[in-house]
């Protein structure tokens, strides 16, 4: 296990964050239908009130609206908030200058002088990993971000990013990947183990499998929007896992499926960033903190998830 560098240690101390993709996104999350600016502000306030201090956004979320809303919300709180945003590798971006330029745009929208974590959203079709890392190095050197990370990088590409940054004496702070009880690829492909070994924080996105692990959706009740089609085949199979989660939650004084799903991610050593559309969801998600599943319960949940994903 590599020692965690002093620059990135703060990220390892964060147990859970809040995802802000929901803030302005219409295509997947139907922003404006049933929830809007006021509801997501309340979700932000409830999270902060519950001790959540890490917010994950991206320049592409709601075409910049998520970052703008975050900026507004930051002005209205006196709590220190850690901000993470992302660079999107559009195919027309092919020079390292596009990273500093994009980050400047994000900082303007958020209304801050620097962020705590700047991540490459996906691998690029037009830029090599080395070139992307050179751009991230510039972002750190310019003082516009405290640390840098990647997202959706497999084990080989992650290692290449880690090595490229190390040559500049900059640690790779994080790899943000899809990880939940219904998406264990990051664990099975060895990304989680490699992250732990190298002192990289693995950030788990879609930790509730976009709402499926809350138990409110099933074969007859599909989520709205693109999620309905995307999960049509998986939904009829998840009931045994949901039932087990409910039983385990009851053994912990009535924890909800949502709280069990997030606690499982934490027990695995990753940092979940659940999205929340409103105050109630944010409050419930925060209830994943302050208690722990036993090793035996984690093993049982692993087994139930394996049976579905086989
Ligand atoms: N790096 C990447 O490529 C990438 C990709 C995806 C996400 N992310 C990040 O990860 C964050 C989280 O992932 P995600 O938003 O895809 O999925 P998620 O956190 O697994 O699910 C969020 C959704 O679940 C439902 N929900 C949340 N809390 C709930 C509760 N307590 N009770 C009932 N329902 C609840 C809500 O949708 P409904 O109420 O509509 O069901 C909410 O929008 C994003 O906000 C974003 O910051 C990153």
Structural features, described:
There is one protein chain. By secondary structure, the protein is of the alpha/beta class. The protein has 13 helices and eight strands. It has helices at residues 9-12, 37-49, 65-75, 97-110, 129-141, 155-166, 185-188, 191-198, 226-230, 239-251, 257-267, 279-286, 295-309, and strands spanning 18-19, 54-56, 82-87, 115-120, 145-151, 172-178, 201-205, 271-272. Strands 1-2-3-4-5-6-7-8 form an eight-stranded parallel β-sheet, covered by helices on one side. Strand 2 (54-56), helix 3 and strand 3 form a beta-alpha-beta unit. Helix 4 (97-110) crosses helix 5. The longest helix is centred in the C-terminal third of the chain and has 15 residues, at 295-309. The radius of gyration is 19 Å and the shape is globular. The two termini are 31 Å apart. The mean pLDDT is 97.
């Amino acid at each position: 296990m590599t020692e965690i560098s002093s620059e990135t240690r703060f990220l390892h101390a964060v147990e859970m964050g809040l995802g802000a993709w929901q803030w302005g996104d219409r295509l997947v999350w139907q922003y404006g239908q049933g929830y809007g600016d006021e509801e997501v502000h309340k979700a932000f306030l409830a999270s902060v009130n519950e001790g959540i201090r890490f917010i994950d956004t991206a320049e592409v979320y709601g075409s910049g609206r998520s970052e703008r809303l975050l900026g507004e919300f930051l002005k209205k709180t006196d709590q220190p908030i850690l901000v993470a945003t992302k660079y999107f590798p559009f195919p027309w971006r092919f020079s390292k200058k596009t990273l500093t330029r994009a980050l400047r745009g994000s900082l303007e929208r958020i209304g801050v002088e620097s962020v705590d974590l700047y991540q490459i959203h996906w691998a690029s079709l037009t830029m090599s990993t080395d070139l992307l890392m050179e751009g991230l190095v510039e972002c750190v050197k310019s003082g516009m971000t405290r640390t840098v990370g990647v997202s959706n990088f497999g084990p080989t590409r992650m290692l290449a990013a880690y090595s490229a940054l190390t040559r500049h004496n900059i640690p790779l702070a994080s790899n943000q990947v899809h990880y939940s009880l219904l998406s264990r690829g990051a664990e099975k492909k060895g990304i989680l183990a490699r992250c732990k070994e190298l002192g990289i924080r693995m950030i788990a996105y879609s930790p509730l499998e976009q709402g499926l692990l809350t138990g409110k959706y099933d074969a007859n009740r599909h989520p709205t929007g693109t999620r309905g089609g995307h999960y049509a085949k998986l939904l009829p199979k998840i009931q045994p896992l949901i039932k087990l989660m409910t039983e385990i939650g009851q053994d912990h004084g009535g924890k909800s499926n949502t709280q069990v799903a997030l606690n499982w991610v934490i027990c695995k050593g990753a940092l979940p960033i659940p999205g929340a559309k409103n105050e109630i969801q944010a409050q419930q998600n925060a209830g994943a903190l302050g208690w722990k599943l036993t090793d035996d319960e984690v093993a049982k949940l692993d087994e139930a998830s394996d049976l579905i994903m086989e």
